Amino acid sequence: HLRFIMPFREDLEASASRVGLDTAWAYGLIRQESRFLLDAKSSVGAQGLMQIMPTTGRWIANKLGYAAFKTEDLQDMKTNLRFGTFYLRSVFDDLEGSQAMASAAYNAGPNRPRAWRATLPGPVEGAIFAEIIPFSETRDYVKKVLSNAVYYAALQRQEAQSLKKRLGEIAPKATSQSLLP
Fold this sequence. Notes:
Elements (H helix, E strand, L loop, with lengths): L8 H11 L3 H12 L19 H11 L12 H18 L4 H10 L2 H8 L5 E2 H6 L4 H20 L7 H5 L1 E2 L11
Antiparallel strand pairs: 1-2
Helix pairs in contact: 1-4, 2-8, 4-5, 5-6, 5-8
């Protein structure tokens, strides 16, 4: 399907499988972040396919043992995919396996979704959580990334997973600071 292209498939699948990440979700995120433009740069400095901030890139490089990391390395497709999938998996694990929370963290930073979750009156569907995100950009981002992931899963002939299932359920939890950038 032309609206849901899948470039860099071999490289993305290799990077995603290295960290046990759902490739459909990674494709959904890349589609939203950069529209698959290799040299994409945001106004705040995020770079490459997965729009990695330089400080986050340095943190990832340290975790992965890239001693000679330079910010320009984020423009390299393979490095960007490896770093981006590693970071997405890191926020996913940090937020107890919630794609909705991890997508919000990828966009707004890992501490904001923790704070939003702490204010919930009780467990809520992920769709409700997405709707009460106070930043319109992040609210739209979460819905679009996970909607994209549903389409990509179908194109990849993965097991069907509804948007409701991808959004999951979010339960309140006392906030604590993330160790992730």
